[in-house]
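Example record

One chain of 138 residues, shown exactly as stored in the release files.
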Amino acid sequence: MNKKIDHIGIAVRDIDASISFYEKVLTGKLIDRYTSELPGVESEVAIIEVNGDRIELLAPTNNDTSPIARFIKQKGKGVHHIAYQVENLDEALVELKELGIRTLEGSLRINKHGRRLIYLNPADTEGTIIEYCDYPNR
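Predicted structure tokens for this chain:
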């Protein structure tokens, strides 16, 4: 199955300062900003486009339960995940299972832009958090 990088997720502490950096230094454009308080997300998200590529800046909104807060406590701010767009997420999940790659329990969801996504288990991906996603309504 074909895959291409969809976006890179960056864990940040100060989303406003990070947006400023991406706009001023990397000449990016803020294309969306929203907060998700869904369990297992609890983050403010800013989507920045830099020359056609997308970056998701992720700041925790709850320091006790946000996975981004946990990530920052364990590893510090920086690259949180790399998202790969697949043609069909359901078929990709079958392929992953056949390859013995697990996904993170409870991470399958649809975001506000209609993107279906799931995270692969970092224990099976050499420690990198990888998101698979598709856009079924495009």
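Notes: The longest strand covers residues 3-11.
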